[in-house]
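Let's practice the habit of predicting before peeking. Look at the sequence and jot down your guess about where helices and strands might fall. Then scroll down.
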Amino acid sequence: MALSKGEIYSIIGMGAIFVFTQILALLISGPMSDAGYQAFEDPEDPMNPIMYMVIILLFTGVILLLIKAGKKNFVQLLILFASCLALYSVLLLPLFYIVWYIGGNPPPAWSQDSLIAFINLLAFVISVILTYILYKFPEWYVVNTLGIIIGAGVTAILGISLGLYPILILLIGLAIYDAIAVYKTKHMIALADAVTEQHLPVLLVVPKSKNYSFRDQKGIKSSLKKKKKIEAMFMGLGDIIIPGSLAVSAYTFFSNGGPTFESTMVAMATIIGGLIGFMALMKFVMRGNPQAGLPLLNTGAILGFAVAVLIFTI
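Done guessing? Here is the structure:
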């Protein structure tokens, strides 16, 4: 089936967001690591990815229970609150560098405590304002902007928190879970339907036409039932974060002593592999039915990583 111009542009746009978010994560991962943003004390502990998957399952379960109970507005507030906290965490570091640069690097010792308090307050205020804008005006470019910021930050934190073996366990485990959740239990489709209807920043949206408005977007299920043409492409933020975290982990841990030329090349190969997986995924997405993204995206990222590792270790 031939694709329309709008569909081609939406694929290119989503692919660009996929790559840009992961490269941004690579750029901020070093400063985040230096600032102690690691989520786990021992990045090589194989229990870390299992704990992470348990947290995902518990959070997903709570959200689904709330949706079934008809508490969609509470779900919206819960995810907006989580998004605000994520924005605050991600914005702290760049604001810290900006304010220190403006005020002189380093600032006088007597002013450092006051400066840190000011940066925390500034990050909090900006996060609240951005979250409020999202709540009042959830257009696709607002959702995407905040999604990219949150996605890059979470990708960087996850990547610097898990060593190579733990991150591979996580990618394989979540790829299997995503396939089951979409094709067997189908609860991931219900979750995607709810967050789309509530216009939340846990997905990315690329319109297929100029007149598209995400604020008018109804749930995915209702559109499929009515056999209406979906005028935008959607991708869960996790579909970028999870394969991207392998790239960040490779960038951080491949050479043991920190980022090097070899670790950078392995990270870029991982991103390219994920992009190839993305292109394969698009063939299925264009058929019009919801698809599990992580099986193909994670497989592509792992293969890209494996090829680069072989090149640099043989």
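How did you do? The beta strands are 203-207, 232-236.
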